[in-house]
Amino acid sequence: MNQDIDIKKVRLNCFRQSKVPGEFMLQMRVPGGMINAKYLSTVEHIANTWGDGNFHFGTRQTFDITGIRYENIPAVNAYLEDYIKEVDTSLCDVDMDTVAGQPQEWDPEGGYPTIGARNITACVGNYHCICGNCNTFELARKIEPLIFPSHYHIKINIAGCPNDCNKAHICDFGIIGTARMTYHPERCIGCGACVRACEKGATRVLKLNEDTGKIEKDTCCCVGCGECVRACPASAWTRQETKFYRVILGGRTGRQTPRTGKMFLNWATEDVVLSVLGNWQKFSAWVMNYKPEYLHGGHLIDRAGYKKFKELMLDGVTLNPECLVAEDIFWQETEYRSNFNVKPLSMHHTAGPQE
Q1: What CA–CA distances, in Å, run from 162 to 90, 113, 123, 169, 248?
Q2: 231 belongs to a structural domain
Q3: Where does the pLDDT of residue 351 fall: very low under 50, low under 70, confident under 90, or very high at 90 and above?
Q4: What is the mean pLDDT of the chain?
Q5: Distant-in-sequence, close-in-space partners of 214: CB < 8 Å, separation ≥ 6
């Protein structure tokens, strides 16, 4: 049956167009990539009842349920009501009746009100990983109500440590859990295990003083990974109780201008990170003159320029004493140039004796 479908409207509802006419893929949000296993039955029911029986773990850690016919979208949305209320409203304290800071009555049976702020992704963090410096999905749940629902687009990746398994360097906002270490020389046995760990897996800022048998540290280049703490057999290194974060800015993939993000904040506390992201809606609205379009955060930063971005995003934010802010940022993008006047290299072949 032929039918007119408003693709943009359906996409706003978190349904993505398929190459099969009339079929769509639902993107179920999972903030921080961590929810209770009981919700797998929700995914199974949608996939088997209205989809093609399959789902994909989306690159943004969503449950992507494929093969949903357009005419079945209202039924899927109605079924999603409990999931959205339990995950976004209750677990993340999201106000679904406010979109981009503006009152907008949410229809509980209408599914997601917007796809704008994409699902926050995270590695497993210190919930499980021995390298993790922070609980990544708990932070994601605190960020969620600051950016969702909104028609302004932003991608946020959270990594539990500077290993950056979750690729914080290639999204609009990358947040990396870091730690500041305290050295206890009275406990140090001078074994050099921390020095070797730093040399092998970090930034080589430690050295053993042969005269004193104690460790010296060049604090300028410490990335806060905590490898020294893990390596020390005598607990001469300990993590400070306060958790810190590095914020990476403006990275992106894509066909035209892919690039790696650059450091915006270093040694920021959780309160600072949340306060900065609390200004995202205001910044986006200013850049777009209150007329949102499908344009991701890194491009908005480019439009405004880093100086203006910094001014608006730090407005009203009280930085912790340790926090450092980049004076300026210069990104390096991949450039693609075509020159049709240049002839391709010729491939020469010399026949061998048997040819």
Answers
A1: 31, 34, 12, 10, 11
A2: yes
A3: very low
A4: 92
A5: 185, 188, 190, 208
- Give the three-class secondary structure for 46: helix
Shared domain for 79 and 140, answered yes or no, is no
Closest CA to 85 of 75, 94, 76: 94
**HSE-up of residue 128 (Cα within 13 Å, Cβ side):** 5
**Alpha-carbon distance values, 2 to 10, 67, 186, 212, 249 (Å):** 17, 17, 79, 82, 45
**CB-count exposure of residue 283 (10 Å: 0-12, 13-18, 19+):** buried
Pairing of strands 156-159, 173-178: parallel
What are the tokens at 132?
Answer: 């993790």
| Cα-Cα-Cα-Cα dihedral sign, residues 166, 169, 172, 175 | positive
**81 lies in the same domain as 62:** yes
Does 194 share its domain with 162?
no
Domain region containing 230: 181-239
Cβ–Cβ < 8 Å for 235, 185: no
Query: How many Å apart are CA 317 and CA 322, to the nearest integer?
Result: 14
Same-domain status, 225 and 251: no
Cis before residue 321, ω within 30 degrees of 0?
Answer: no
**Whether pLDDT at 345 is above 60:** no
List beta partners, residue 246: 176
- The pTM of this model reads 0.91
| Residue in 238, 164, 158 with CA at minimum distance from that of residue 201 | 164
